[in-house]
Amino acid sequence: MVKGVLYGMGNPLLDMTCTVDEAYLKKYELQPNNAILAEEQHRPIYEELQNENYKVSYSPGGATQNTIRVAQWYLNEPEATSFVGCIGNDSFGDKMKACMKKEGINTNYLVDPNVPTGVCAVLLTGKNRSLVTKLDAANEYKQSHLSSPTTWSLVTDASYYYIAGFFLTVSPECMIEIGEHAVAENKTFCMNLSAPFLSQFFKDAMAKVLPYCDIVFSNEDEARAFSKDFGFNSTDLGVIAQKLAALPKKNDKRSRMVIFTQGDKPTVVFHNGKVTEYPVLPIAQENIVDTNGAGDAFAGGFLSAYCQEVELDDCIQKGMEAASMIIQVSGCTLPERE
């Protein structure tokens, strides 16, 4: 395995995971299975979780960072993956660096001394999760850091790039810079649609980055929101995947693959002109602990196989295996290696 074969760039967050009741969600006008950026009304959540009688667990988070962590776990070679983003000069940032180092990931964080490390409140109600993200330092990533020799060498060393759509709110310019490199060198650039609000409120940025995308991941809600916002006039996932794959593409040496997960329903894949549905691995309802990170884990499992040039069917299976593993634990918690 080539060192640094898979490169991720995104919003490094410390996840604060906690079980709450539906009244708590109502108090902050939150949906049980959604992801939003914190607004002023949500700011008290983070202190409440720390100061009141809630049992909070902390773990490295952020969509891209979780995907890279899962891929690294499967690849199981020191520094097979790398990750870049912005953190604060604080205990949360130090905690994250230590965790990532322990997991064998080569990180090159931009450290902003003026802003705290970003956090994500992961509010669990039953099997659902509501994500409320306070980006803080994650929002301060600078293109100059990407262009620096240390960071850019991570880009040139990699052959596969994965960036969650959440980074469209921070620096689509950085995504395009990496996309240009991927096109020039015929490398694989992947993006996740990540959340319904992105195609609605960051549509222009998404439209600029999509031409660089060789693989697009999404869940069914994000796919249907994308269809509505991009005028596809369909709720059929196979049709949406086909239309998304047909959007303009910079690298004409390979066709675009589109992968839609949909919980316990079959995963929909459009590749080489056809739609294929893959039934998911069955899991007893009582074994499902927390669906947070299932999509990130799927992408990580998939990419760990894909960057080893494994057959597509096996890549999908590896993605499903990863998602299955993650939803049976709290948060994106990876088993200790023997």
Short description:
This protein has 338 residues and is of the alpha/beta class. The chain has helices at residues 22-27, 44-51, 63-75, 91-102, 143-147, 149-157, 172-185, 196-201, 203-209, 220-229, 237-245, 294-306, 312-326, and strands at 6-9, 13-19, 34-37, 57-61, 81-84, 86-88, 106-107, 110-112, 118-125, 128-134, 160-164, 188-192, 215-219, 257-262, 265-271, 274-278.
Describe, in plain words, how this protein is organized in 3D:
The chain has helices at residues 22-27, 44-51, 63-75, 91-102, 143-147, 149-157, 172-185, 196-201, 203-209, 220-229, 237-245, 294-306, 312-326; strands at 6-9, 13-19, 34-37, 57-61, 81-84, 86-88, 106-107, 110-112, 118-125, 128-134, 160-164, 188-192, 215-219, 257-262, 265-271, 274-278. The protein is an alpha/beta fold and 338 residues long. The protein has a 9-stranded mixed beta sheet with strand order 7-5-1-11-12-13-14-15-16, sandwiched between helices. A hairpin with a 2-residue loop joins strand 14 (257-262) and strand 15 (265-271). The two termini are 20 Å apart. The relative contact order is 0.15.
